[in-house]
Amino acid sequence: MPHTAREPQPVTPEPPGSTSRPLLTQSWLDLAFVHWAADPSDVAPLLPPGTVPDVLHGRTYIGLVAFRMHRVGWFRLPGIPYLGSFPETNVRLYSVDEHGRRGVVFRSLDASRLIPVTVALTAFRMPYRWARMSVRRQGRSITYASRRRWPGPRGARCRMTIRTGEPVEEPTELEHFLTARWGMHYTFFDRAVYLPNDHPRWPLHRAELTECDEDLVTTAGLPAPRGDPLSVLYSPGVPVRFSRPARPAGVPTP
Fold it and tell me: Which InterPro entries does the record associate with it (predicted)?
């Protein structure tokens, strides 16, 4: 496994910088963060070149994150009401590159709008998948359901329900590690890219996973989760801004 050239940047609950000229804006609403521990050696082969698993006390994590995407917009234009608003569920890993930048790596992103999925898949090489999806709330319980349509494997599914609890006054070290992520690593035409983002500090709540029937994790090439998740959190959401992608050296792409 390659070693990073620099020490990882500290985990900070606020973004290290702000985006004055956003490339992309959106809001993430009604998020369920569900995480299991994983062996770094199991996930390392699935990360983009130039990155290694980000670890906390020797362990890395597999995240299953379900939420509502709201009003995706380009540059400073208003977000799109219909095409830019949809449920999404992603399987993600935790990464750090040779420049010390911590991020996430998406193994799959299931979403319910075909046009945004097609654009993200074909133009940006993001692993988006079109799925039939719903997010339903009943009291303190929220149920997220999805069944994949295209591309395959058709029928890959996720149905999970969380019960939201009390607000988190001070997140633990692990909760900061899993949620305070200010960028993503991915590969675009065989080149490693880092896409920074910023948003307000997460408002987090404790949560309980009361139902989980899914095969998105194994479909994404990862080991099946073992036992109960080590962390379950809920957030009502935040507005998010993405700046221009950066190559590994930090130079913005054309």
Answer: ADC_dom_sf, DUF2071
